Amino acid sequence: MREKTSEFFFIPKFMIIPLAxxxxxxxxxxxxxxxxxxxxxxINPEIFIDGKIPFLxxxxxxxxxxxxxxxxxxxxxxxQDRKEAIRLMAADFFAKTVCFILFILIPTTxxxxxxxxxxxxxxxxxxxxxxxxxDNLFPSIxxxxxWFCYIGVRKNPEIPKPYVMFSLVFAICxxxxxxxxxxxxxxDVAGGALLAELSYFLxxxxxxxxxxxxxVKINGKFGIE
Length: 225
Description:
- This protein is mostly helical.
- Helix content is 70%, strand content 0%.
- It has helices spanning 2-8, 13-37, 48-52, 60-78, 82-105, 120-131, 141-154, 161-180, 186-202, 207-221.
- Helix 4 (60-78) packs across helix 7 (141-154).
- It is globular and about 55 Å long.
- The two termini are 29 Å apart.
């Protein structure tokens, strides 16, 4: 049992730093830009369709459940062929950089509903609203990262097809949950998914190679090949 558990969480040494960089850059992008734009005027990207989408507090379970999904799928993604793993992590870095720029150029916000219920889902929604300010909405990093989770496993022959399909379905469920929890607007969701796919396509034309050389240098300083 121990061997299977350790194997499940195994991360190739070379990919540990790219994963760490991904996490750190995500934090800087999301929270760092917030510090810069907190006093700026923000745009509401909601359109008429958003007003037709119901507020469903119970879907916060999916919204918060994504964090475990992200951890598992990113680990699975970096365990595949190194070129594919590097391409994904390069795309992740590229996309988060685009997000950093957009969060500054187009500060966004939305109007959240008042949550007055007493259920556990209502309490969780109030918690989310309290800890996560309504800004940095476009594109949705929640949706961006969730789609990368699907991209990261869809080409890996070692991943069972049912799990690949689960990743696709769960990513879509996360998209929906960002709307039904009123954390994002439709344009944010579309922007996040499209940015992930576009970044994954574009990095193969040179950026992935630059990213890999950079990671080779960093890993080399730690004696990792």
